[in-house]
Amino acid sequence: AAGGLERYLDSLRRELRAPDPAVLSVLLALLAVALSLLVWRLLQGRRGGRRAVLLLGLCDAGKTLLFARLLTGRYRDTQTSITDSSAAYRVGSDKGANVTLIDLPGHESLRLQFLERFKAAARALVFVVDSVAFQREVKDVAEFLYQVLVDSTVLKNAPALLIACNKQDVTMAKSAKLIQQQLEKELNTLRVTRSAAPTSLDGPTAGGPAQLGRKGKDFDFSQLPMKVEFVECSARGSKGEDGDADLEALEKWLAKIT
């Protein structure tokens, strides 16, 4: 019996030294699957830790009223914000997921410093556009959006981006399609002029603004690392203070990104 056990152990040692190729292939495949799952869990954990949805845009685009409507459904008079406002927003039913809505000031002297404060926590960005004043403000809108899109943290985290074309209750409001076309044109122009601008004597700084879109091609939103969508909405609603807001497309998008 002892001799038989010794022969079995010798055989096992030989198998371990020279494993069956089929067995080795299975083990390597299982190891690859395990590593893939680990990487996926890590990425999901990082994304899951970002629970903020930032409301961005110029002054008077309607961000604060939109913020109030999403949270309470009710109309309220608003004024230009000089600081951020935040609140938990439950997506869908009572058992839906929570995100934190953060309304950021749109004033030129404040908007970038508040973006800097909250951008690392952003799961998604809602860039609110005044569809009525758009033709007059298109250059300013594109300038701010450009600064957001070339930010290194935004590019790295690639939060979902929604361009919310607000004030669609007004007859003169521009459509989401026209706003998209005009923004792509203006962003392309900005990209060309910025890339042609002379650099400082010290050369480009490390970690400076990245190139927008694909070099050698006219810019369009599909070239960005994040998914970009456009919706039409109205925080005021067609009946003003007495009616409901038209935010169905925005609410569906919020449910989707969570």
Automatic annotation (TrEMBL):
It is a single-pass membrane protein. Pfam families: SRPRB. Gene3D superfamilies: P-loop containing nucleotide triphosphate hydrolases (3.40.50.300). One of its GO terms (molecular function) is GTP binding. It comes from the Eukaryota. Belongs to the SRP receptor beta subunit family. This is Signal recognition particle receptor subunit beta.
